[in-house]
Amino acid sequence: MTEQLVDPRAPRDLKAFIAGLPKAELHVHHVGSASPRIVSELAARHPDSKVPTDPEALVDYFTFTDFAHFIDVYLSVVDLIRTPEDVRLLTYEVARDLARQQVRYAELTITPFSSTRRGIDERAFMDAIEDARKAAEAEFGTVLRWCFDIPGEAGLEAAEETTRLATDDRLRPEGLVSFGLGGPEVGVERPQFKPYFDRAIAAGLHSVPHAGETTGPQTVWDALTHLRAERIGHGTSSAQDPKLLAHLAEHRIPLEVCPTSNIATRAVRTLDEHPIKEFVRAGVLVTVNSDDPPMFGTTLENEYAVAARLLDLDERGVAELAKNAVEASFLDTAGRTRITGEIDTYTAQWLAR
Ligand SMILES: O=C(O)c1cccc(C(=O)CC[C@H]2O[C@@H](n3cnc4c(=O)[nH]cnc43)[C@H](O)[C@@H]2O)c1
Ligand SMILES: [Zn+2]
């Protein structure tokens, strides 16, 4: 019997459709997904931190003047994660929040360097994320996979450490599928990371660097050429280069678009100026993602609602966006078929009510 996925009493509007739609999330950061409840719980445990313990005060704390300010605040939250149990709790709660939004599959970007350099034992770190991943899949049905990213601004020492953690067979977690590069882009040239991406790719990992979030289209070209990017994190400035858009479309390199993030970090001035429409018009495979949802006051559901407004989409259009994320994911064929089938069934049932 086909599972009844649509609640027949749900109001017939797009928000309710999005809420129940099975989804995949491809660009969401581990620490950046900590809910206000978890952040305040951790802040209360560590009173030496400047992070507020009152969840309401976090709204102000999470208001950013620019990208550099965002990274400062981000690292203050990283400082709250001090034990393997903190890592496990955070990971498990992030999975719970994703499951509540009908996220069936998520690739979570984790920065192991930030934890190991703060003294968390590397073996205990891997065990904590894997334990949470398995529990989340068993209890919520949400499949989690990892992207380990280099915090580029921390330099080649961070690149070496991240590559070691991602490729050492004794450490590398089962859920690891990809290798990334995050943090500020200004002054952090992509080509210097080529040897590290080469090693990660040789070890079977997919390449998914951030590029073109806070710098121009040349950074995206560099990510494609030097880091052999298979997807681009953000890629916002690609809109400034028609040849680049054509290249992304022709080679079916997806963009991981995170509209609210780009406003919150002031990378883009207003949502109406966001280039997502230009990406779609150029034929680029667009996926919609939440990046650091509580820090940006958003959710994946809200990002779909924003994208639907900017792209003027109805239910079928939103379902196509959800299917783009499945297509762009590193799930195996059986997993993709299963989630795509769920999206189709849900949409057909919704439209037939
Ligand atoms: O951990 C450290 O000690 C450290 C030292 C120097 C620099 C850094 C970083 O730059 C960490 C950046 C951190 O930010 C994460 N992140 C979250 N959201 C985004 C985004 O929208 N764009 C780029 N990076 C983002 C990223 O995963 C890194 O963990 C750290
Ligand atoms: Zn990101």
Explain this structure to me?
The chain is globular. The chain is built from 16 helices and 9 strands. Helices cover 49% and strands 12% of the residues. The chain has a single domain, classed as Metal-dependent hydrolases (TIM Barrel, Alpha-Beta Barrel). By secondary structure, the chain is α/β, with parallel strands linked by helices. The model has no long low-confidence stretch (mean pLDDT 95). The strands form 2 sheets. It has a 5-stranded parallel β-sheet. Strands 6-7-8-9 form a 4-stranded parallel β-sheet. The two termini are 18 Å apart. Bound molecules: ligand LNDFFVEH and zinc ion (ZN). The ligand O=C(O)c1cccc(C(=O)CC[C@H]2O[C@@H](n3cnc4c(=O)[nH]cnc43)[C@H](O)[C@@H]2O)c1 binds next to helix 4 and strand 3.
DSSP summary, beta strand count = 9
- Termini gap: 18 Å
What's the CATH first level?
Answer: Alpha Beta
Query: Biggest β-sheet: count, sense, barrel?
Result: 5 strands, parallel
Label the CATH architecture.
Alpha-Beta Barrel
- The Cα radius of gyration reads 19 Å
What count of helical segments does DSSP give? 16
Bound molecules: ligand LNDFFVEH, zinc ion
Please identify which CATH superfamily we are dealing with.
Answer: Metal-dependent hydrolases
Helix content: 40-55%
Keywords:
TIM Barrel, Ado/ade_deaminase, alpha/beta, globular, Metal_Hydrolase, five-stranded parallel beta sheet, deaminase activity, four-stranded parallel beta sheet, single chain, binds the ligand O=C(O)c1cccc(C(=O)CC[C@H]2O[C@@H](n3cnc4c(=O)[nH]cnc43)[C@H](O)[C@@H]2O)c1, 9 strands, metal ion binding, 353 residues, binds zinc ion
